[in-house]
Design goal:
By secondary structure, the chain is α+β, with helices and mostly antiparallel strands. It is 34% helix and 16% strand.
């Protein structure tokens, strides 16, 4: 029986490199962002709120980063029909807003980065640019958002049902 396992996590220097790369991408696309970088346990390592970003994104980006680090998945991949239930089950610490990705290298989750204040597509692009600062990080290029934010799903609407 094994009592110890190998783990890896971002350092402060790694977190700052991720933050700097994400800020550069946000500047490039002209969208001010809030950006959070966390370690494997979801603990905040680095944060930046660019001038002109949305104040509420301070909270949502941290939750996106925590969700990604602890689930080993990008945020926004859960179907909109379960968003509320999963959020409540996780005591409001889980989010399905697009824009958080784990920083995973060689199968190890090192932490996560999340961006917010733009569209889901912009948030994800900025998060990916941040993760790219870590050599070998997975960019989750096959990820497809499933949440209401990018799919246009309206809760309670079931177009497949014909009402007569």
């Amino acid at each position: 029986m094994t009592y110890v396992k190998d783990t890896k996590t971002l350092t402060l220097a790694g977190g700052l490199a991720v933050l700097k790369a994400a800020i550069a991408e946000a500047e490039k696309i002209g969208q001010p962002m809030c950006i959070s970088v966390v370690d494997t346990g979801g603990n905040l390592l680095a944060f930046g709120r660019m001038d002109g970003s949305k104040a509420l994104s301070v909270i949502s980006t941290r939750n996106k980063a925590i969700t990604s680090a602890l689930s080993n998945e990008p945020t926004g991949g859960a179907h909109a029909d379960v968003e509320l239930q999963v959020t409540l089950a996780q005591e409001n610490k889980w989010t399905n807003l697009v824009g958080g990705i784990p920083i995973r290298v060689d199968g190890f989750v090192l932490g996560a980065v999340a961006a917010g204040s733009g569209t889901g597509t912009q948030d994800l692009a900025v998060a990916r640019a941040g993760a790219a600062a870590i050599p070998g990080a997975d960019m989750f290029l096959d990820f497809k958002p499933m949440g209401a934010e990018d799919t246009g799903i309206i809760r309670g609407s079931h177009p497949e049902k014909v009402h007569g």
